[in-house]
């Protein structure tokens, strides 16, 4: 029996803890246990052998913390090879009768990935790849990735395993008491991500005992189609003197874990505090037991780094607004690399009720692979909604799927051989659910029957890549009824056929149907309602469209999908307000009637409204000069005099920004605010950017064209940007003492490559003396001081 | 005995949150108050309140203080533990949800991000106070009392002591808190601290 067959067909026994046993053998506190593979091979061999003797099918090597961040290249190789040798020797020496295999054990890197931490995703992949490569060469039978508490790092490790080896991979995550990973994912989200990428078994280990892990295991069993793995601790740890003790003994442990095997868990072992005695008891408790058969849960599911969205009879709403088609302002934002504009569009759709966000940044003159990945990353740092990655460029699609933290919706594939050949391998590698358009080389067929036939062809071709029908969602293509009178009927007939004959989920972009007609929302709403009655599983739409939301809410109520009609009632309440009042919500406590007061008081929505009103009679530039700038000056002076404090300063700045936005809409397109370019960044290694963002906001208020490179910016990137833009001004921020050397390095490089540029530095740990000592031109104690300095330099230009 | 506890939200101290956000006067403009209340309401669902602690012996030897299995020559620690044979070591966190929420607004609304930071700092400090008060009550039953807490970075207490806390309290596994190479913690709204235990309440 090979290891794949074992995992697929049997109840599999893993090993138990190693750490406690090594400490008992004399491993001193603070010493890395992985070194003992080389220095005390006999100790490791006897521990591994004890587990094989106790009945383990699979023993994990003592390589939990073996990675390039902890060890040099040579030592890492030596350790991993020795670890595999030790486990192999133990397998050979054990006389136990069960089939015996050796797994390369891979734990967390010990570093936190970006955006929460600083480790770039690809660096994490490379680090894991180094370990996987050595392990595979040294003859591991399989790989166990375990104790991961971050979904993104888990993805990096699994991707490395898949790219470097052909070995089976078991993936196990460490959950907190709230049933989530430290970075927020629940078991269903991890299942979507890991099954999508082809993990052979998934599950949970460590952090909790069998009682506390039981509900998490139950959730895995509800959603997972692959074998589920469980390695609990021997209860919760307690400390007595210098010793850590666990309170669940072998018999109790065995009984509790065996009960979970009866419910369907198939791969079991122990984590912290478990010993060969625990595994032996478990082996005995499981004697003669047969595994619960695996079932395909047949879920069509996408996920973010926290949660899933499941396709069902209640259509999911996919926000379509992140797309340049037909949107002038959006195109401008893309060309100017204005990511914040895109993020705001995303958050607004989330507030309006979107479940998934479509992301399309395709414009002819743009580096789409780069921009799409940047936008996906940025969106995932502000919203936890799953994303629909929308691109016709396979290179852009691959890059975006690679960095996406979760299982994405892929828009799109179609019945053309070329399209399927490009998209299916990406789905197989990175996971994902694809939107499949029912068109092919012959175009869009005029009949429902032909569209259903294309759907069948796509299902068959996907199957040949090992992709299941459940990972395809069919779009039967909405056409304009004004051009072809039967267009809507054909689309709906095809929709019904695919949903109920093929049994696959469906999706439509709705609004095309009314093209060429007056009062389009009316037609769109009715068509959307009809589509839902005909088996629609998801719609790509504008979540700000009241007609669409009306149709969706009423469908839910009429189909008994809205408990107590509660959501409908809340929606209807909101309707009566927005029908009578103006569009912007006014939640502010004061009524002020001049723009200048609104800015000084920090009333963002009010400032926007008043600016719009004023712009009907006043020239944009006059408004800026006579009302916005004086307001800002008043606030700036009050701040400098200690009369108001940072929160108010920022609220006023944001209010001014709200007014500027209206001004910009009125003015002919131009980049920047009129003064000069100011390049801004937080230095390499530093991920704190609230201070920098404050500076940026004020600089923008005062008319600077701020190029914000973000945080953790390498010196070369910063200087290249200054040179490329010929920027006369630049600013650097650092919060931590550990990153001030990076500030010095950046200033030095800047002075060398861009001697014309004045650089001002600031941040919590930076002082005037320090700024002088590293050769900066100025020190900014706060954001206002930075603005004053910039104005001084600007006047001399 | 290493123990993890979860708490209900401690009472909110608006003045502290405002102070952490940089607002230093009693006078509270309505717009700032509204911002704070909005942020607090939004943060509610993202907050959790967990503490991991251990009660260990303190032994003095040749000018070095041994607390459980960690050693320190810090004067600030020595002062904080004067006359104590026992020490409470603990870490508190309000969870990663707060960081995610703050991150969402960092680019979009610095004012909101700043206020959320202030609220996060207040929440975790209030959690520490709540925990210490509860622990102090338990000590009172034994005829003992808890002295004020100190943390790495305070006085001459080196930030490197963070590593000792992480080892002694197994924080990454118990609380899901990680320690960066820069010795800062993620979730950022987390605190490590120690406090002396003395005989009978003063």
Structure description:
The complex is a heterodimer of chains A (797) and B (202). Chain A is α/β, with parallel strands linked by helices and 797 residues long. Helix content of chain A is 48%, strand content 14%. Chain A has four domains: 283 residues, TIM Barrel (Alpha-Beta Barrel), CATH 3.20.20; 244 residues, TIM Barrel, CATH 3.20.20; 72 residues, Methyltransferase, Methionine Synthase (B12-binding Domains), Chain A, domain 1 (Orthogonal Bundle), CATH 1.10.1240; 120 residues, Cobalamin-binding domain (Rossmann fold, 3-Layer(aba) Sandwich). Chain A has 30 helices and 25 strands. In chain A, strands 1-10-7-6-5-4-3-2 form an eight-stranded parallel sheet. In chain A, strand 24, helix 29 and strand 25 form a beta-alpha-beta unit. About 2% of the residues of chain A have low confidence. Helix content of chain B is 42%, strand content 24%. In chain B, strands 1, 2, 3, 4, 5, 6 and 9 form a seven-stranded antiparallel sheet that branches. In chain B, strands 7-8 form a two-stranded antiparallel ribbon. The mean pLDDT of chain B is 91. At the A-B interface, strand 8, helix 13, helix 25 and helix 26 of A face strand 1, helix 2, strand 2, helix 4 and helix 5 of B.
What is the CATH architecture descriptor of chain B?
A: 3-Layer(aba) Sandwich
Number of strands of chain B: 9
Strand order of the largest sheet of chain A: 1-10-7-6-5-4-3-2
Number of helices of chain A: 30
Distance between the termini of chain A: 78 Å
Q: Number of helical runs of chain B?
A: 7
Radius of gyration of chain A: 30 Å
Domain module tally of chain A: 4
* Main CATH class of chain B: Alpha Beta
Helix vs. strand class of chain A: alpha/beta
Query: Might you state the CATH topology name of the largest domain in chain A?
Result: TIM Barrel
* Gross geometry of chain B: globular
Strand/helix succession of chain B: EHHEEEHEHHEHHEEE
Helix content of chain B: 40-55%
- Determine Rg of chain B (CA atoms, Å): 18 Å
Q: Biggest β-sheet of chain B: count, sense, barrel? A: 7 strands, antiparallel
Oligomer: heterodimer
